[in-house]
Every structure is written in C-alpha cells, then in structure tokens.
Amino acid sequence: MFAATRGDITLAQTARRTTPLPMEPFTVTNDKHRIEWRTMLLALEKRIVLCRKFPGMLADELSDYLDIRTTGHIGSLMTLINRGCRRAARTGTVRTTCGLP
C-alpha cells in the first residue's frame, strides 16, 4: 500500500513515516456487539460540534444506518460522520440526520 514503486520518493517517505495497523471491522451480530457499537457512537457524538446535537443523535437515531452504510469499517464511519457534519453546517440544519451522504 505504501511501498515505493518506480523510485517514487513521495511514497517512500510516506512508507517510512506511517505504520499500518490492521483493524477488523465492527460486526453487530449479537447484543454484546450492539452495545460495543453504541458505546463507540456515543463517544464519537461527544466530539461532534453542532449546535443542535443531542445525546443519542448517532447512537440511537442512526446506529443501524451507520452500521449498514459502513459495514463496520471505522475509516468509512469517520468519513460518513465528517461529511454529514459538514453538510449539516453548510445547509444550516446544524444536526446530522439520515440524509447523510
């Protein structure tokens, strides 16, 4: 992924400065997994800066939607939340909804 090919100095520098960390996606197949997923979403909610945010905005209203859209991949989850927050701020809704991109 970060390996330099054909003498690409940029990729070589990136490879030396990063450490890939493999991470399995979240799987929500039982109650224990659902609690872990919800706990993570609650932690993410605390870091969202929108004036009309509320506890449970992600964990209660969008939990299943976010699981389906991201298939449990954290990178996809963070991208989706960031895009949703940017859209909410840009459009003036100032909260995330199921209309996430």
Overall description:
The chain is mostly helical. Helices cover 50% and strands 0% of the residues. Helix 3 packs across helix 4. The chain is flat and about 45 Å long. The two termini are 27 Å apart. The model has no long low-confidence stretch (mean pLDDT 82).
Sheet of most strands? none
Morphology call:
flat
- Strand % is under 5%
Can you tell me the residue ranges where pLDDT is under 50 for at least 5 consecutive residues? Answer: none
Helix tally equals 4
Number of strands: 0
- Average pLDDT across residues? 82
How far apart, in Å, are the first and last alpha carbons? Answer: 27 Å
Order of helices and strands: HHHH
Secondary structure: helix percent: 40-55%
What structural class is derived from the secondary structure elements?
mainly alpha
Rg estimate, integer Å:
17 Å
Question: How does the SSE layout of this entry go?
Answer:
Elements: H1 9-17, H2 31-45, H3 63-70, H4 74-91
Helix pairs in contact: 3-4
Task: Write a brief caption for the model.
With 101 residues, the chain is mainly alpha-helical. The protein is built from four helices and no strands.
Output the keywords.
mainly alpha, 0% strand, single chain, 101 residues
